[in-house]
Amino acid sequence: MQAIKTKYLPATNYRGSRVKATCERGTLTLPYRYDCDQFDCHRETARQLFEKLFSKDFSTPMVFATGCLPDGTYAHVLI
Predict the structure, then answer these.
(1) Tens digits of per-residue pLDDT, 30-59?
(2) What is the CA 62 to chain-centroid distance, rounded?
(3) Sequential DSSP letters for 8-65
(4) What is the domain partition of the chain in residue ranges?
């Protein structure tokens, strides 16, 4: 199993704020959702990347252990 790392990407002149999820098998970048808190926004992005990459392998509900790293990124692991 792989850990998923998420990072906040601030707005630029051309794009709004985003959250990028990365793991060894791929990446996914989604617009930052202002209707939820920062923790939930990162967790939702990780969940969507996991579903995109592994949805056929798992039929049970996904529960993530999530933690914030010193550089401000988040790490997510399926438990």
Answers:
(1) 999 999 999 999 999 999 998 888 776 666
(2) 13
(3) EE---SSS--EEEEEETTEEEEEEPPTTS-HHHHHHHHHHHHHHHHHTTT--SPP-EE
(4) 4-78
